[in-house]
UniProtKB/TrEMBL annotation:
Organism for this UniProt entry: Albidiferax ferrireducens (strain ATCC BAA-621 / DSM 15236 / T118)
Organism phylogeny: Bacteria, Pseudomonadati, Pseudomonadota, Betaproteobacteria, Burkholderiales
Catalytic reaction(s) noted: uridine(35) in tRNA(Tyr) = pseudouridine(35) in tRNA(Tyr); uridine(2604) in 23S rRNA = pseudouridine(2604) in 23S rRNA
Keyword RNA-binding: yes
Location of the RNA-binding S4 domain: 16-80
SMART domains assigned to the protein according to its UniProt record, in alphabetical order: S4 (SM00363)
UniProt keyword terms in alphabetical order: RNA-binding
Record-given protein name: Dual-specificity RNA pseudouridine synthase RluF
Leading EC class: isomerase
EC id: 5.4.99.21
Length: 262
């Protein structure tokens, strides 16, 4: 006769959740304890721990005397995206040939001269939404936000918000080409979105054009250049609305400052 084996109970996990310990120390509710931990106010043996599920036993747990729940506000991150990264794809959704720009957001790529004064927390990299598409081959400003107000602004007012893009093209650019773009082009009798273009600089082998356009129109600049026989060397978005990258290094990011408005 075959007897079924009794299931082996899982080994008990040592210690208790950090959130439970903090709730007893403060004292406060378990949810408030989790917020203190996620806010970077709790340390274990002198090291900040931001995971409420972290388990402790006899370690030294301390709560910063300046701890506050008022700083747990949603953040917006500004990334200087390199070429070859998909601005809108979430990590894991991009294909094997193109990586998600969001995976560039980490503590290691945070700009050292960020003037926002925001304390970097792990929770700032969660639940981010990419705003305002940018061509994969282009570099420049990409916005990721947790703030529903910023997301609504960049979505509902997209057609009214001006973007500034610097496009480097091969060779010199005839004045009549700039004039044609500024006067407006059409496809099958339908006018293309209005674009303002001016010559930014010119050199021996290439020229840089400044494009200003309202709304999100991926591929429009490339199409206009192709129509006029201009070969694009590179493309960089500098500004969305009133927010610009300034001197943000390629591949790095900073926080949107409190006074900045799109």
């Amino acid at each position: 006769m075959i007897h079924a084996k009794k299931p082996v109970p899982p080994a008990p996990r040592e210690g208790e959740r950090l959130a439970k310990r903090v709730a007893e120390m403060v004292p406060c509710s378990r949810r408030e304890a989790e917020q203190y931990i996620e806010g970077g106010w709790v340390s274990v043996n002198g090291q900040v721990v931001e995971e409420p599920m972290f388990r402790v036993s006899d370690q030294r747990v301390e709560v910063d005397p300046d701890a506050s729940l008022l700083e747990l506000s949603a953040v917006t991150l500004l990334l200087h995206k390199p070429p070859g990264f998909d601005a809108m794809a979430a990590p894991g959704q991009a294909n094997r040939h193109v990586k998600s720009a969001q995976q560039l957001l980490s503590a290691a790529t945070h700009a050292t001269d960020d003037a926002s004064g925001v304390r970097l927390l792990k929770r700032h990299f969660a639940k981010l939404t990419a705003c305002v598409p940018l061509e994969t081959a282009a570099s420049g400003l990409v916005v990721f936000t947790q703030d529903w107000r910023v997301l609504r602004k960049l979505t509902e007012d997209a057609q009214l918000m001006e973007q500034e893009v610097i496009v480097e093209v091969a060779g010199e650019v005839p004045a009549q080409s700039l004039q044609r773009i500024n006067q407006g082009l059409a496809v099958d009798g339908q006018p293309l979105p209005a674009v303002k273009v001016s010559l930014n600089s010119t050199g021996e082998t290439s020229s840089k054009l400044r494009f200003a356009l309202k709304g999100s129109h991926p591929g429009l600049i490339a199409y206009l250049c192709e129509r006029l026989g201009l070969q694009i060397v590179s493309m960089k978005r500098l500004r969305i609305g009133r927010v610009s990258m300034t001197q943000l290094p390629l591949g790095q990011w900073r926080y949107l400052q409190a006074h900045e408005r799109f």
